[in-house]
Write a structure and sequence with these properties.
The complex is a heterodimer of chains A (663) and B (177). With 663 residues, chain A is α+β, with helices and mostly antiparallel strands. In chain A, 64% of the residues lie in helices and 11% in strands. The N and C termini of chain B lie far apart (60 Å). The chains are: A alpha+beta (663), B alpha/beta (177).
Amino acid sequence: MIPELGHYAVVLALAVAIAQMLIPLIGASRALPSWVAVARPAAVAQFAFVAFAFAALMYSYIVSDFSVINVAENSHTLKPMLYKVTGLWGNHEGSLLLWVFMLTAFGAAVALFGGNLPPTLRARVLAVQAAVGVGFYLFILLTSNPFGRILPPPLEGHGLNPLLQDPGLAFHPPFLYLGYVGFSMAFSFAIAALIEGRVDPAWARWVRPWTLAAWCALTLGIALGSWWAYYELGWGGWWFWDPVENASFMPWLLGTALLHTAIVVEKRDALKTWTILLALLTFALSLLGTFLVRSGVLTSVHAFATDPERGVFILLFLVIVVGGSLTLYAIRAPTLGNGGLFQPISREGALIFNNLLLTTACATVFIGTMYPLFLDAVAGAKVSVGPPYFNGTFAPLMVPLIAAMAVGPLLPWKRGDIAGAFGRLKFAFAAAALVALATLYFAWGGPVLAVFGMAVAAWLIVGAAVEFAERVRLFRAPLAETWRRALHLPRAAYGMSIAHAGMGLVVMGIVATSSWEQEKLLIMKPGDRTSIAGYDIAFEGVSNVRGPNYSAARGHYQVTRAGAFIARMEPEQRSYPTPPMQTSEAAIRPRTDGDLYIAIGDPAENGGWATRLYHKPLVHWIWFGAFVMVGGGLISLTDRRHRVGAPARQRGPAVQPDVQAAE
Amino acid sequence: MRWRTVLPLVLFAVLAVALGVGLTLNPRDIPSALIDKQVPDFALPPVPGKALGLASADLKNGEVALVNVFASWCVACRAEHPLLMELARRRTVPLHGLAYKDAPADSARWLAEWGDPYERTGVDRVGRVGIDFGVYGVPETFVVDGQGRIVFKHIGPITPRDLESKILPAIATARGS
């Protein structure tokens, strides 16, 4: 009964969404206040129905109701409760329900907390939001019903892919979707603005917090996914340029660009059409990500079970949403007009530079990701584009971007003084030089580019600190004055400095780990010893252990350094019976100088065990830096300027992640 | 309308067409590098309990044959197994099995349990021969013409549709040439 109610709730949500899509839009263009007023209650009702459907499916998972096909295929009675719950979105149908759940949650947030929006703009935003929802409801109801039943119900479920039974991955999709769906807000605002024919600073002020919230969630989602790949896949990589990873990375790159141009619209009333285009494209790429994962168009480790019928539906949906919005853009954008003028060397100029590099970077990732498809479609040839392409094209774009990240915030609006900015960055120069020398000293003979990379990262981190010190006039004004300024500094300024410094940490982590990683692959017999990066590792043997729903061979390794005990490390090779699969649980020991990483593989014929040892310098800085960036974003979200005139609105986006986690 | 604002739409139209074409293609159709090449030289002992082993010479006796790479640990092999049994029953084509990276006793038990469709079998304990064949997933099925040339390769479990639309035509072509 419960699943049928859930199914029915989705049908009701579709009906409400259709009404919410049409009535407010007509009302807004014909100036009918009662029609416009439909938008808010409809958005709340839509959310209530989808939340009910989501809860119904969640219930089926929790009680392991195997008469529901989706539960039978993806759950198992022996699975820990956490993974029963997260199993809901570990599959195509359930993840779509999660998607619309978030979409309607954002819609309801606008309806409830958007009190200070002009009513017609709010109505149009909600109508666009509902239109996106209609597409997804139809997709769910026509091709991917998560509530389908099976008779007779199987006694036991198939279980969830064991690779996915992991806390890092349990929360990776919700955050990723929160990001994707969050960009739908920017999209809806952009479409509403195109319909109204008006983009102004107030509009930008409205869009920014939503974009920022989406960006935070997406950053976190990508970081969690990368972290999961690092410790779970067992070969110690943290980014593979896999099509699906790229699918989440492209909206991130454009979303980051959008975040920055929205500031220009807000502060200077310039770059309006470009900002609108970015908002449209960011969401288009989010949808494209959904398409790539589910259609089977590209080969990927992440692909859900693919089904051409679904692919056709998503493509159609993509054509309507993206094609429709770009058509609207082509017609209306020229009428928007452009605002304030500025010199190339200025804050605006720096932000355009940032946008240019970010969109170019996004384009290179896009080309690399889609090239195999294009070539297959045009010439019928099969190729795959690998990391060498991406590393070779992406890194050179990042270097000027990072170098400019330290300079841009020091330039004033309209017209800047580059010499003055560089003058104030002398500490950053000194820090970069120092780090370069230190790198040369500690890693003599290593890659020259690595020295450069570390220096650029240091430049960025210290540059962010210099910018902050400038703002509070540290050491220039009396300390009391500095303190007073620090207290009155907008939270957004704190957020920016923190996020930029976080980016610097990420870069350091990436440079260090890709330049000085050490790897050893060998067969070890009990009693064997080896050493890596100054650590001595002794293999003591293997014991068999049983987990709640798996059995494992656990290797025992003792790590010492210069005779002193450091750690015992116990990687596992797990075997799951349902579905039959082996996973590798690497043992990772974070140390100040980097991670020690041991993965155990198959037994060899002579009684030894395949062992993979890595030393990965500073690798955890990558995720730490990403978390710092998210932290900066969240602090910026709490800026009171986002709240002015809308005291309660802030709760919407900022609190969302916790709501998800608690569910 | 200015061309600058229409450009995104045009680019998207190109992308949409490519995606549409992409839907009709299968990225997992990967051509084998060994198509039209000679099978590697090998001679393998049979699965315990069976009489005939498999060697490259057995594939050069003038008769078109199928070589099916299987393993007892391979779940997808179970899926295609009934079809292989059917193929063996109809005696359409000699079918040989290559037990890839599998303990010989396990292969034998597997064949005893689910039925043995193979005329000849080869135990490829460490996967050396499989690698020479360019195997990277199990199951895989090769069509070899009477001169020991690989003329077709199917990756993944064979479905009835694959059999009718790809494998049987490949056999017919090989016999015709």
